[in-house]
C-alpha cells in the first residue's frame, strides 16, 4: 500500500514580498505564516510525515515553537537556489524513507489557507491515477496579454484555463526523475508534463491563495481568522 508524504519548500527569501522577514515567518494570529501551512498538512490523517525544506542559513526556524504540530514534522536544511532545487534536494534527503510508488504532496510554504476538504479531495481523486495531479481552479477573470508598453495586445480566451495551486501530488520515483530531467520548471506538474504525461486537475478553492505581496498577507489573515470565529 502506497503511503503519503508531504514536502514543503521554504528556503526562499520572498523578495517580491518585501519587509524585514522572509514572508514565511511573518505572523498571522501570533504564529508564523509557515506554521499555518504546516499545520494543515500535519493534521491530515492520510499523511505519514511532513518535511519542510529550509535554507542551510535559516536562522529563524530555531526561534519559533513547532512542537505543537506533533511528531510528523521534520526540518531539512538542504534548500537550494530555486523551488525545483529545494524540492529535488529534499527528495534526495529522504530517499531512505520512501518507496518508488509512495505519493509525495509538494505544497507551497506561502499557502497557509489550505483546508482539509481540498486536501482530502486531492488525495481521494488521485488514489488510483496513473500520473498524479494538482489542486487548481478554473480561471474566472478575463485575461489580457500586454505589449512592450504595458498596453493590451490581445484578449485571451479563458475556456479550459486553470490556475495551478498546491499541493501537487505525484509518485516519489516519477517526481524525482521529472525534476532531475527538467530542473528549470516553476512547479512539479510542469516537470511531469515535460516527460509527456498529463497530470489531473483536481478542483481546489479560491481561499487557498499564495501570499506573494503584502496585501495577500492581510487577506490570508482574514481567511484564517474567519475559520476560527
TrEMBL record:
Catalysed reaction, written as an equation: 2-C-methyl-D-erythritol 4-phosphate + CTP + H(+) = 4-CDP-2-C-methyl-D-erythritol + diphosphate
Class of enzymatic activity (EC top level): transferase
Keywords assigned: Isoprene biosynthesis, Nucleotidyltransferase, Transferase
PROSITE patterns found in the cross-reference section: ISPD
A GO molecular-function descriptor: 2-C-methyl-D-erythritol 4-phosphate cytidylyltransferase activity
Pathway the protein acts in: Isoprenoid biosynthesis; isopentenyl diphosphate biosynthesis via DXP pathway; isopentenyl diphosphate from 1-deoxy-D-xylulose 5-phosphate: step 2/6
Record bears the keyword Transferase: yes
InterPro entries according to UniProt: IspD, IspD/TarI, IspD/TarI_cytidylyltransf_bact, ISPD_synthase_CS
EC number: 2.7.7.60
Sites annotated Transition state stabilizer: 16, 23
The keyword Transferase is assigned to this record: yes
Biological-process GO terms, alphabetical: isopentenyl diphosphate biosynthetic process, methylerythritol 4-phosphate pathway
Site (Positions MEP for the nucleophilic attack): 158, 210
Function text: Catalyzes the formation of 4-diphosphocytidyl-2-C-methyl-D-erythritol from CTP and 2-C-methyl-D-erythritol 4-phosphate (MEP).
Membership in a protein family: Belongs to the IspD/TarI cytidylyltransferase family. IspD subfamily.
Protein name from the UniProt record: 2-C-methyl-D-erythritol 4-phosphate cytidylyltransferase
Name of the gene encoding the protein in the UniProt record: ispD
